[in-house]
């Protein structure tokens, strides 16, 4: 790491022994080792922080790519959907025109001149093809609740 040879380390050790003395040498060596350990932990922490930041930036880049792909997919889905809705509304308008030509509205005096204080009631008759088919299906279904009585329960069923 520091590119120090064995001879250079031996020279440093001899100089330290002469300067510090043999009594204080173990305490100084222990302090130097503790400082070196702290330095190694600091370097490792910096490395892990840098690596974490790099991963976060990579994840942010991947997130941006995924968001761009999501927007592209949404566009590919929504554009045909909008075109289909427009075509459906055009077909519905055409159907309304052809349906209104087949069945001209009834002209009676009561229907054409409603009372002025009357509130418009909702129509019970189906107007569209889907309403007509729903009404015919409803008429074909048997009434499952016809046999049930709406009266109070017998006393044995009460709790």
Write the layout of secondary structure elements.
Layout: H1 6-20, H2 25-102, H3 109-112, H4 129-140
Can you characterise this structure?
- It comes from Chitinibacter mangrovi.
- Residues 124-133 have a biased composition (Polar residues).
- Residues 95-159 are annotated as: Disordered.
- The two termini are 88 Å apart.
- The longest helix has 78 residues, at 25-102.
- This protein has helices spanning 6-20, 25-102, 109-112, 129-140.
- The chain has 4 helices and no strands.
- By secondary structure, the protein is mainly alpha-helical.
* Annotation field: number of helices: 4
Mean pLDDT: 80
For the secondary structure, the number of strands is: 0
Report the portion of residues in β strands: under 5%
Please identify the structural class as seen in this structure: mainly alpha
Subcellular location: Cell membrane; Membrane
Protein name: Sec-independent protein translocase protein TatB
Keywords: Cell inner membrane, Cell membrane, Membrane, Protein transport, Translocation, Transmembrane, Transmembrane helix, Transport
GO molecular function: protein transmembrane transporter activity
Quick structural gist:
The protein has 159 residues and is mostly helical.
Question: What attributes characterize this protein structure?
Answer:
transmembrane helix, TatA/B/E, elongated, protein transmembrane transporter activity, membrane, mainly alpha, TatB
């Amino acid at each position: 790491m520091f590119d120090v040879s064995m001879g250079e380390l031996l020279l440093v050790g001899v100089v330290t022994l002469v300067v510090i003395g043999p009594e204080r040498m173990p305490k100084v060596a222990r302090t130097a080792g503790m400082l070196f350990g702290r330095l190694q932990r600091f370097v490792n922490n910096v490395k892990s922080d840098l690596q974490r930041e790099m991963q976060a930036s990579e994840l942010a880049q991947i997130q941006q790519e995924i968001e761009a792909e999501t927007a592209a997919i949404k566009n590919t889905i929504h554009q045909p959907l909008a075109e289909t809705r427009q075509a459906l509304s055009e077909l519905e308008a055409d159907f309304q025109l052809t349906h209104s030509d087949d069945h001209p509205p009834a002209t009676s005096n009561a229907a054409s001149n409603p009372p002025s204080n009357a509130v418009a009631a909702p129509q019970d008759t189906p107007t569209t093809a889907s309403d007509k088919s729903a009404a015919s299906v409803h008429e074909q279904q048997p009434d499952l609740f016809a046999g049930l009585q709406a009266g109070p329960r017998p006393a044995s069923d009460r709790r």
